[in-house]
Structure formats: C-alpha cells, structure tokens
Amino acid sequence: MYASREDIGYDFGDDSKVGNKPIKPNPNIDGGWAWMIVLSSFLVHILIMGSQMALGILNVEWLEEFNQSRGLTAWVSSLSMGITLIVGPFIGLFISMCGCRKTAIIGGILNALGWILSAYASNVHYLFLTFGVTAGVGSGMVYLPAVVMVGQYFQKRRALAQGLSTTGTGFGAFLMTALLKYLCTEFGWRNAMFIQGAISLNLCVCGALMRPLFPKDVVSEKHVVRSNSEDNQAKALSHSAETIKSNGVLSEEPEKKEEATNEEVLDSVQHIEIGGKSRNGKSMYGLRILKTVSQLTVTVRKGFAVWYSSYFGAASLFTNRVFVAFIIWALFAYSSFVIPFIHLPEIVKQYNLSSQNNIFPLTSIIAIVHIFGKVILGIISDLPCISTWNVFLMANFTLVTCILTLPLMQTYITLAVVCALIGFSSGYFSLMPVVTEDLVGTKHLANAYGIIICANGISALLGPPFAGWIYDMTHKYDFSFYISGLLYMVGIIFLLIQPCIQKKPPGGKSTEEAQV
C-alpha cells in the first residue's frame, strides 16, 4: 500500500560503476538472494503496516480502559501511523550512514520496545510516547530499508518485486485484525500488546536478511585499500563524494580539501598506531578511539550532505503547479482511507452489529479487496489504450463517493459492500509512482515521491483525531465522514483545475520533460 521514494528507483549506495570502470553484475540481482529480500520486505509489511491497519481493535479497548474522548484516544493510532511515514526522509540519513541492515535491526528493537512498554500504560498520554512515537519511529526505521533493499536487488523485475512485497499490507491487515481480536478476548489488551511486541522482534530477523549488495572488484580512485573493512568504507565515501558533486551541494575544491584533510587524519592516526606498538595500552586505546571518531565524523558528514542534497535540493519541484496540487491532494486523501480502519469497530458496536462483524470484520474486507484492487488497477493502467491518470482519478472519485455514503449504511451487508469498494478503489496507491513520474519527470522522481509520502503521513496523523473530535462534539460519526470526504473532494478538484497530464509521447518523455 505504501511506498517510499526508493520504490521508484532511488538506491542508496549504488556502486555499479566507480569512475568509468564497468563492474560485473552481481549474480544476486533479479535472482538468488534477491527473493529472500522480497520475503523479508513482505514480512515487514505484514508486521508493521498490517498491525497499524488493525489498530481499530485496540482503539476500542483504550476507550473503555481510560474513558477519554474519542478525539484524544485516536491520537495514539494516528501518531504511530503518521510518524512511520513522516520520518521517512530522516531515516534516509541513517541508511546512508549505517546501511539498511543495521537501521532495520535497530528499528525492530525500537518497535518491539514500544509495543511492550505500551502494555504498562496508565493513561492515554503515556501511549502517545511509547506507542505513538517510539513504535512509530521504529516502524519507519524498518519500513524504509525494506523498500530500499528491494529496489537495490532488482532491476528488470523491480515492479513485480515491489508489488509482491507490498501485498503484505493487505495480508497483514487481515491476519493482524484476527490475531489482535483473539488476543484481546483471551488475554486482555495489555497482554495482547506484550505478545505483539514479542512478535515484532521478528522484524530484527527481517533486518538481518537484508544483506548488503556490494559489487565485486571495486577499486576506489581516491582511496588506498588498507584492509577489507576499510576498503568497503572507502568505496562508500568515494561514492558519496561523487553524488554530492553531481548534485551541486559542495563545490569541487572544498570537497577535495575536506577529503584530503580527513585522509591525512586517518593516515596519521594509523602511522602513529603502527609506530607506537611499544607504548602502553592506554595510549593505544586512545589512538583507536581517535581513529574511530575520525572515521565516524567522515561518514556522518558525507551521509548528511548526500541526504540534504536529496531532499532540499529539489526546490524547483514547487514551481510545478500540478505537483503542488498533488501535494494538497495527498494532505487530504490518505486520512479518508485511514479513518474507517480506526473508527469502524466503534461504528459497528454502535449499530449493534458486533456479532456479525466478529465473524468477518469489515476492516478485513477492506484489506483483502485492497490486494486485488492494487493488482487489477495496475493491469488496467498498463493497457496501451488506457491513461494511468484517468484510472487514478476514477479510483479517487469512487473512494470519495464511498466515504460520503458510508454513514448512510446501517446494516452489515451494505457496510460490507461499501467497505469492499473502499478496498478496491484504494488500490490506486500502486499508481502513485507512475503519476508522480508523469508530473515531474524521471529526474526529480525520487525526491518528489518522498514529499508525497511525507504529505500522506501528515494526513494519517491528523485524520483520525479530527474524526474523533467531530464525534465528541456531535455524538455521531456521520459528520466525520462527510467532512473528511468533502476535504478529499477539494483535493481532487485541485488536481482537476490544473492542466491535464498528457500520456508520454513516442519519444518516451513525460509532458514536463518535453516542455523543458
């Protein structure tokens, strides 16, 4: 369902070439260990995105336990879902410095810690910190590497691999809804969160499967190979320097001076360390610390420069009026999809439909049909006679219509039909990278999609609490869906009043690229 900027081809540490020297392709690309990466990403989507889509079960338990307003309680779920997406651009900094494997393992521990600490919550504000922030940041630290690694390991089959891995969201929403409902019934919500925290430790296993993809026989032109470990670091620093120069963040001369200075520091430390073997242990220990700090400083400076240029070097994107309208749409759209997942269990309870909903939850219907929606809409949009933009707009119109009509349905059958339509039409998430490429072109695709995902995170953060706040004032969920649906419609109108996106001309360039 979600995708990050790496879904569409932005890879950290892509050293396929150093200078002008071609490198033999790694046999694991598009095969071999690459499918283990897909499995790892699939499980990450189940454990993270699937769990977040099942938070409506816990939301009902929190309302009964703490007796707080629905608007305040909904902040717990929205914080976790929103922060997972919002921190994506900042998690990229960790990936560029530490790599995907370490980032994902640390995130898995942090996510599990958030679930376990939440089991001891004494009030809703405690859950804000433990579940909303701690588990949310941990989820973001695992989710982004999971998508990045799929992009690194696949070239020819990247679309297929990303599609297979992201279907874990739908499966996860179905499985986690049933699991949390069973655990809450049998053991209570506190023990359920503790058990879920233990299950979330499997994210560390998923992170361990994210084996770095290092090309063989790469020799850096600017670094001398001292050892295997230092060689890997030198290659990463050399690639970072080339990336920074190509993005225009640092000029060539300061970069050379900085690199030379850093190399002199490391060389001097190493020579002192070799020549000082006869010194006492304390001096050698201090030199090792100095060398480690120097290497870490170089890595942090280079990683930050690459990260800064990737996100804040795309100011020209905001001169594109259609892209700005797309951002406004993203700010309103995603909340309309998230609100049913959070508040449907409470709505079902008010309509006295709990017995039927327990047999087959409405949120599970959305999750299952959502899987088919992504696949079918993707196939339709790939047809030569069909415009992806038109399919995207039609899916949006269908979804906003379902959001506006859902309050009118008060039987299980009618609610199930509307929920199925919501799940199918929300499959347009798989079309978002394609639409973004048509808007800004291939050159700005990675940065543009990162901004769109961040806007979706803000929408997920504010949507559920807003719906709960409206309920607290009116004592009905009807107005929550009406207002969110109308705001969603405003976002669609912003897309319609802008110039239409044309299909790619025979030359293969998008409209924006053709104009340039």
Automatic annotation (TrEMBL):
Alphabetized InterPro entries for the sequence: MFS, MFS_dom, MFS_trans_sf, Proton-linked_MCT
Database matches in SUPFAM superfamilies: MFS general substrate transporter
Q: Name one GO molecular function term.
A: monocarboxylic acid transmembrane transporter activity
Transmembrane segments annotated in the record for this chain: 33-55, 75-96, 103-121, 127-148, 160-180, 192-214, 322-344, 359-377, 389-406, 412-435, 447-467, 479-497
* Annotated localization: Membrane
Q: Which GO terms describe its cellular component?
A: membrane
Q: Which Pfam families match?
A: MFS_1
Q: Does the keyword Membrane apply?
A: yes
Does the keyword field hold RNA-binding?
no
Membrane topology is: Multi-pass membrane protein
Query: Which residues does the UniProt record annotate as the domain Major facilitator superfamily (MFS) profile?
Result: 37-503
Broad class of where this protein is predominantly found? membrane
The UniProt keyword set, sorted, is: Membrane, Transmembrane, Transmembrane helix
PANTHER family listed in its UniProt record: MONOCARBOXYLATE TRANSPORTER, MONOCARBOXYLATE TRANSPORTER 14
Please state what the protein is called. Answer: MOT14 protein
Q: Which organism is it from?
A: Cepphus grylle
